[in-house]
Amino acid sequence: MSERATSIPPEEQHDDQDQDQNADATANADGNDTTAGATSTDTAATGDDAQPDPVTTGAESVVRALENAGVEYAFGVQGGAIMPVYDALYDSDITHVTMAHEQGASHAADAYGIVSGEPGVCLATSGPGATNLVTGIADADMDSDPMLALTGQVPTDFVGNDAFQETDTTGVTTPVTKDNTFAADPDRVGTDVSEAFALAREGRPGPTLVDLPKDVTNAETNREPDEPTTPDTYEVTEEADPTIVASAAERIENATRPIMLLGGGVIKGEASEACQEFAIEHEIPVVTTMPGIGAFPEDHELSMEMAGMHGTGYANMAITHCDTMIAVGTRFDDRLTGGIETFAPDAEIIHVDIDPAEISKNIHADYPLVGDADTVVSQLARAVETSPKATKWRAQCQQWKSDYSMAYDVPADEPIQPEFVVEALDEATSDRAIVTTGVGQHQMWACQYWTFTEPRTWVSSHGLGTMGYGLPAAIGARLAADDDQEVVCIDGDGSFLMTLQGLSVAVRENLDITVAVLNNEYIGMVRQWQDAFFEGRHSASDYGWMPEFDKLAEAFGANGFRIDEYDDVADTIEAALAEDGPSVIDVHIDPQANVYPMVPSGGDNGQFALAEDQL
Amino acid sequence: MSGENEPTEPNEQNGQNEPGYRRGLDGPAPEERPTPAGRRNEQGIRIDPEVEAKQEPRRTVISTLVEHEPGVLSDVSGLFSRRQFNIESLTVGPTTDDDRARITLVVEEPDPGIDQIKKQLRKLVPVISVRELESDAMRRELALVKIDADQPSEVAAVADMYDGKTVDSCPETATIQITGSRQKIDAAIETFEQFGIREIDRTGTTALARGTQSTAAPASTTESTAEAASHPQNQYAPADDD
């Protein structure tokens, strides 16, 4: 974890003695029956000599729950209904990062969760605050990222009366959260938050939400929150059925064209190492999904990199022609599978997933292995005794790598090719650099031309495809990352424009982030599809009215750079990376550059197009 | 991945700046690539490429034990609407335990859909257990039918045939209560139509497993594998009903 960007000076923190006296008075007055619970919580939570003061309000109980869970940062925006919680945060060691927009708060929390593995926390007030969080919550839900959202709510007496800034937040967020709770009881509110935190992290991670009515957080209570544990009804299977493991192992031993398909669940389940060991020991080629990027080093010979709509040609050939697929932690999204009928049509599928509902949801699993990715892959590793005889297959995979190489042309008098910029950024940064992106062509170029070697270094919006994700995600990633890890945001002009108010936050917190905007003055992916499927009718995709991002960055107090020529690329990147605070590089790329290979929506992965005339 | 890292003169590349220059990557074109022989059906199951395989929907009863707390019914019904599962009926009622309620769902889906419904229900945090009832389970529905009572004795006779009970009557109408299987109620309503039906209200299906079996006890996790849905005892057999 990096050093905390403290926004509360130490001298402003509360005077311990005063607080103790107040708290004692309250506890005595209540003659409470919860002292035992409170004491045990205190001991477990701190472990040092300083006992935290007993809670006196629902809001303090909420903040205590976050402290008990080890929360370091919370991202949010103040507002009427959430004020009691913010008031309690004022006395807490948790660093609150005020965002410029609630959407940014939820993306920052999401990215924090991806990089750290612990739920990121975001806060917003009721009504518009809560609804502004929804995009980021939905994004985390699609990508199974651990996140806890806390929203203010109008007082319980007003709920249902269309009060000022009232929204049915649990109603709105039910379809996009793993679980959500309307906290109706001041004595229980802290435990609601503890439970939500635990749920966000356990099993298949996901976003949880607790809606906090103002009267509940304002109310007096001396009830300390319980420890973060999931409710009894939430069961997670850790180990897969040994009989299915045994038959899957036999299948692997007899495979002649095996492949491992690693999804985002590999990274979330900390199974990258187990998967790497397994693949390398048995010499099985590896493809990843987009969320699975980083699960296997892309510079390894066995790596076929990313498969799917804009995956490499060789990855798509490999998944199309394999006879055995060991799929770990993937939900077989349509951007990966293309048309179901043509997805790995010769393959028997061994599917490892912690969520039973993912088994045979989209692609039938011949060997369903429900359980924790790390545990199950280790079970498989123990069960497989002989490696598959796949020398010919491996040679074929290497052949495909050279047949469909990702080499591109860099003509000197053409505008800058985006691939060149991505590779230059990759070269200028260390292996552990974290890349965040928005959504669009630039995101695909980042997937294709950045060589990822480590888990938790690729932070992007996969399932929901949220434009504007990149910059707020870079803020969350920066705070979760180690100090020596660079954070680079590769963004598009359209994407960046959606959330660039977050620059004010990066400047205020002096976050060392480098944003490279691949500026083609188009909603480029849409333009590419319009060229391919809508006869080149560029309806509303031409963004010729873009601001000058370098100057805009300077207006925010960030460092602004601009690249128009190849000769400037390396030097400017180096200069931007050298700055300590946030930098924005406005890179004017070839406006006509397109993303290839491409599998048209619902198409056959093996029939990917290498150029427009093949679509 | 490897790209050329140095800008090159345009003329070195074969006619790249000519009109019609093909922007894209190199490699064999789609028609030059091998294609595998296999195929999957729309459920993602590998099939004989020559055979048309389509799963027919079947009707089944799913019993769900849930925490008795606000919002659970909306969680469950919302799950069905957003995942586009076809729901026939849904009933909710208390159980012997005040903290728990039972939701009985009748759904009509192909086997993979039914399997998916059970798994998705299991994922809801307030859901304690989910079970697809076997075909011999007790299934009952209740209907109130308000009928024109121009021929009171004939109405009574038909009601009698279906074990119906007259719960309200006036010179113009009679309201009959019928309980039983869905088919029995359908048949009764069809027969009542000859008198003229003014209004109908039907509950959905309620159901309990037969004998000493527990209808919805905490499920073992092994049940939720892909194979679970295709067990023959889960097939719906109308003859066993009632």
From TrEMBL, chain A:
Q: What family does this chain come from, according to its entry?
A: Belongs to the TPP enzyme family.
Region Disordered: what ranges? 1-58, 213-233
Source organism of the structure: Natrialba magadii (strain ATCC 43099 / DSM 3394 / CCM 3739 / CIP 104546 / IAM 13178 / JCM 8861 / NBRC 102185 / NCIMB 2190 / MS3) (Natronobacterium magadii)
Q: In which pathway does it act?
A: Amino-acid biosynthesis; L-valine biosynthesis; L-valine from pyruvate: step 1/4; Amino-acid biosynthesis; L-isoleucine biosynthesis; L-isoleucine from 2-oxobutanoate: step 1/4
The protein here is known as: Acetolactate synthase
Cofactors per UniProt? Mg(2+); thiamine diphosphate
- Ranges where the Thiamine pyrophosphate enzyme N-terminal TPP-binding domain occurs: 57-170
Gene Ontology MF: a single term:
acetolactate synthase activity
- Kindly indicate whether the keyword Disulfide bond belongs to this entry: no
Thiamine pyrophosphate enzyme central domain: residues covered:
246-380
* Ranges of biased composition (kind: Low complexity): 22-49
Q: Gene Ontology cellular component?
A: acetolactate synthase complex
What does the record say about how the cofactor binds? Binds 1 Mg(2+) ion per subunit. Binds 1 thiamine pyrophosphate per subunit.
**Out of the domains of life, which is the source?**
Archaea
Which reaction does this chain catalyze?
2 pyruvate + H(+) = (2S)-2-acetolactate + CO2
Q: GO:BP terms for this protein?
A: isoleucine biosynthetic process; L-valine biosynthetic process; sulfur compound biosynthetic process
TrEMBL record, chain B:
Per UniProt, the ranges with Basic and acidic residues bias are 20-57
**Entry-linked Pfam families:** ACT_AHAS_ss, ALS_ss_C
Q: List the EC numbers from the record.
A: 2.2.1.6
EC main class here is transferase
Q: Where is the composition biased (Low complexity)?
A: 214-230
Listed pathway(s): Amino-acid biosynthesis; L-isoleucine biosynthesis; L-isoleucine from 2-oxobutanoate: step 1/4; Amino-acid biosynthesis; L-valine biosynthesis; L-valine from pyruvate: step 1/4
Q: Which residues form the ACT domain?
A: 61-135
What is the recorded name of this protein?
Answer: Acetolactate synthase small subunit
- Name its species: Natrialba magadii (strain ATCC 43099 / DSM 3394 / CCM 3739 / CIP 104546 / IAM 13178 / JCM 8861 / NBRC 102185 / NCIMB 2190 / MS3)
